[in-house]
Structure formats: C-alpha cells, structure tokens
Amino acid sequence: MGRVAGPNPDPVVLVHGFLDYYGTPWWATMEELLVEAGWPEERVHSVTISKLPGTTIGSPMSYAAKVQETLESAHDAHGQPVDVIGHSMGGLKARWCVEQGDGEEYVDDLVTLGTPHQGTYAAYWALLTPGGRDMIPGSSFVRTLNEGGLAPSVRYTSVWSSADSLVLPQSNAKIPAEIVDEDTENIYCGAKAHISMVHDAEVLGMYAHRLD
C-alpha cells in the first residue's frame, strides 16, 4: 500500500488486547505498515500495559488510566488530537477511556479491529479472569459501555471479519446499531483472522481514510 496519510497526520496510538503485549510480531508489522502509508515513525505510539505476554487479563476498566496517560502524552508531544487503533479488547479499553473517563478531549478518531463491542461468547473460556468476564455478552461492562453511548466529538470506525474466531458471533464486533451516528462506520473486511486484522495491509487500506 502506498502513502495515504496527509502531510501532517494525527499521531496514532495503538492499544493491544487481551493476553497481548507489544513484543508480539504483528505490532511491529503494523508500525511498519503505518510508516509506509505516510505516518512518521515518531508519530506512532503504543500503550505499554505489560512487558510480559499473557498477563493482560484485567478488566478493560483497569487499563483505562494507562490508555489516557498515553493519549495525553502523545497529544501534548505533537500539539494536536490523536487517532487511536485498538485491537480486540484494546478497543474496549479505548472506549472506556474516551466515554467513561476524560480521554475524549485528546482523541479525534477511534478505530477498532475485531473488538467485541457487544461481547463475545469466546470469553467464556476466560471466565476466571476479570477481562474475560467483562467481555461476555450482556455483562455489566458491556451494558454500561453501550448504554452510555459514544463520545460526541470522536469519530468511530469498527472493522469486523466473518472469520474472526474470537468474536462470536462475528457481528458482535460491530458498534451496536442503536448507538451509531452519522459519523460512525462499521467496515466489513472479509474473511480475515482475528490477529491478521492487525498486520494485514489490505485491512489497513480499508480504514486508513478514517485516520486524519
């Protein structure tokens, strides 16, 4: 994919999901794709929650302060609003920060990749963890998030796949119809695996126009 970013693109903040961390190879690939698409390397930031794989099992609520810290730091470093890309539970962390915390003032666009906005039945395998319980369909976390609605000043994009084995049913990765507005977009990316949505150049090309 060639350059798609404008001459002064918003900084991008990457937020990983459940059990993940930034030592996994798909995040390095995503950063490379963003740079190739025109984002200067120094404008790509990540939320460091843990340096150990498999340890990020907490509630999305418990990570919201760390997300906001990174949003504020990136915003202040570049003097402009930031765009957020959250994968899987990372999208829930970002939403909670933006909608239930004070993150909205720092964010322009929020893109989620394979995020269980309406919960996922796959979370039952992680029922013993706070994060797993919060991602079960109908959980108090999911209800609170969606009943609260979207942040008015943030433009939302949700990317979902028909081959996502960790968001079940797959359509639960869409932002619920009852809270979408005219600036919200649910993008179907085809039969992409849950992790491949992070590092697939074709997927980035489907939502890159939503980052500015």
Task: Please tell me about this protein's structure.
Strand 1, helix 1 and strand 2 (44-46) form a beta-alpha-beta unit. With 212 residues, this protein is α/β, with parallel strands linked by helices. The protein starts with 11 loop residues before the first strand and ends in a 5-residue tail after the last helix. It has helices spanning 25-36, 60-78, 89-100, 130-134, 140-148, 196-199, 201-207, and strands at 12-15, 44-46, 82-87, 107-113, 155-160, 185-188. Strands 2-1-3-4-5-6 form a six-stranded parallel sheet, sandwiched between helices. It has a single domain (12-210), classed as Alpha/Beta hydrolase fold, catalytic domain (Rossmann fold, 3-Layer(aba) Sandwich), CATH 3.40.50.1820. It is built from seven helices and six strands. Helix 2 (60-78) crosses helix 3 (89-100).
List the helices and strands and how they pair.
Elements: E1 12-15, H1 25-36, E2 44-46, H2 60-78, E3 82-87, H3 89-100, E4 107-113, H4 130-134, H5 140-148, E5 155-160, E6 185-188, H6 196-199, H7 201-207
Parallel strand pairs: 1-2, 1-3, 3-4, 4-5, 5-6
Helix pairs in contact: 2-3
Shape: globular
Q: Using only CA atoms, what is the Rg?
A: 15 Å
* pLDDT averaged over residues: 96
Q: From the 3D coordinates, which CATH architecture would you assign?
A: 3-Layer(aba) Sandwich
Keywords: Hydrolase
Protein name: Alpha/beta fold hydrolase
GO molecular function: lipase activity
Q: Would you kindly provide a brief summary of this structure?
A:
The protein is 32% helix and 14% strand.
